[in-house]
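Hi W.,

Here's what went into the run:
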Amino acid sequence: MLDLFVYIRNVENLVRCNDPVVTGIILADRDFSSSNAGLENDEIRKAVEMIHGLGKKALLKVDRLYSQKELDLVRQYLLFLADCKVDGIIYTDLGIKMMMEELNIGYKGIYAPETLLTDYYDISTLKNDGVDGCVISKDIPLKDVFEIINEVPDYCYLRIHGPILIAYSRRKYITSYLEKSGDYSEDYWLVEESRDNRLPLIEKENGSWLYDATLQSFNEIRKLNETAMKGALIDNVYLSDEYTLKTLKLYESVLNGSITAEEAINELKEFDETVRYADINELKETWLDKEKA
Amino acid sequence: MRTELLAPAGDLDRLKTAVIYGADAVYFGGKQFSLRARASNFSLDDIKEAVEFAHSYGKRVYVTVNIIPHNSDFNGLEDYLRQLEEFNVDAIICASQAICDLCKRVAPKLEVHISTQQTTLNSYAMAYWTSKKVDRIVLGREVTYEELQEIMQIAEIPVEVFIHGGMCANFSGRCTISNVLTNRDANRGGCAQSCRWNYHLYHGDDLLDKDEYLFSLGSKDMSTPDFIERLLKVNVASLKIEGRMKTAYYIASILKGYRLLIDSYYENGKVSEEDLKKADYYLSLAANRDTFNGFYPGVPNEKGQLYNFITTASQSFIANVKNYDAETSEAIIEVRNHFEVNDELVIMNPNGDDVKFTVKEMFDEKNEPVEVANKPMQLLRIKVPVAVNEYTFIHK
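Here's what came out:
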């Protein structure tokens, strides 16, 4: 059975993840992660204890790119996480790898630059460079994902469910457009003027994150379960814990064969009809792949 | 060590223009493994000729191998890198750990420069690339000048920064809007610049559109003449101009502007107000979009955003020179934009100040007098007040 890691926004929902299918729980604070929710430090400490009490691993999202001016705060935060005895972090900035080495930090680091890990040569290189684990880019065709997992077994993680990040910026887009500061982190979205699809946009103090549809892998989860993937991630970013817990149950049911993938998708659509989905299998042959084929 | 001025080139002609107009180094992409798929890009024969031409002027040549590769993109890469090394290319610009390591292994004479696609923003991220023994890092365009000062105090390897041209609105290499909206892979040369499109902004069900213009992610272009002195003071290795798809006239005028600022700094220890005025004049010649200072003054607000995106082709470039007869002081020019007899025109040569003159008469290839030049690519003969050559541009 694959190792499943799931992002939970609120501490009170942790106990509801006490499910054998869950290997670890992902948490996030607001300042050092891309999350628009985020736990305070005392909540993180308590949550890690609770997660360990459930016999599961605790991972933290430290998944922003950091400016030179932020490095001292990042260092303090990494040390705080060590003190909390987290099992690992998911990071986007290669500087974090070097800082972890300098601090001789006791937990693992999983490198997740979203768009950059699109081939097995690069992922093998990172493994040789001492990176503990890598999250394969969600922007490549599934056949490429399988090739990568085969070439670099027991090392790669894959996002199997959650809103697809399509842009990340240091700019504050909504503040700029409205010419007014504010909290623009919840329920803002864009629609391109000649299209219909909603693109959720989160703005925080340190930048903006734009998402597309929500990735789902119900049709492929049984096949993925048979691969040498190190772990699968369910990260629903801004969606509720209720939605995530529902998602988790449905993957478990598809994996044990009690429902079909189609039934799972339909059930999830009924649960929240505002969420638009993209099947992991329909991603992401671009014109370049087609030309090559 | 003097800071280098690095220019883009979309083809051989533009490369030659860049070299003649004062670039210390030129970068371009080959037919494969490079972003900017719509730029003309260089064949292997072109690359060989480009290196020979640039090196004959003592200038350096960098080839972009900056795709974010998929598994199949590595086919032929090893041979390609060896070929670049054989041609005496000075460096590759890449964005992949694997390409970096491969190049070090199979073509060790090539320098490896890490592309801005890797979004290196801090000294710890730089330390990773330093540990891989790369030769230069191109910083992300999101680094402020204050942060750059701090980085340069710690930097163990040469640093390259952007000074001019189009800007990704999002972190370079971390944006797939183009993939999603147009099926064009931004990280493999197909970016459709969907960030510049218009979007409706909602909060819940409330539409937040302004009456004057819709929401856009798009960025104004970068232009930083007033930061050049400060960038030179912190000893960055290279000042980079963006724009492999830009015209030769654009490259010439932009280079002319920055060249004079850099030269003035090294000659006088500072950049004067007079220098900045002159530079502004050259930078404005080919400008077709609003500009700002990028992130150097700090994270941009609405003044760095490009709403109502329209690119207006500059009409100032009216002809280039095909031939010059020193005895008669006559030039054969190729028409690019409308002008008429008695118009005041300006000659921009690679060296020296621009020279104004009034065109008194002009003749076509049949030696017939022409009053109005309005046929693009038509060859006309005119008298000019100073010597010109094939790298001379005539503008209004």
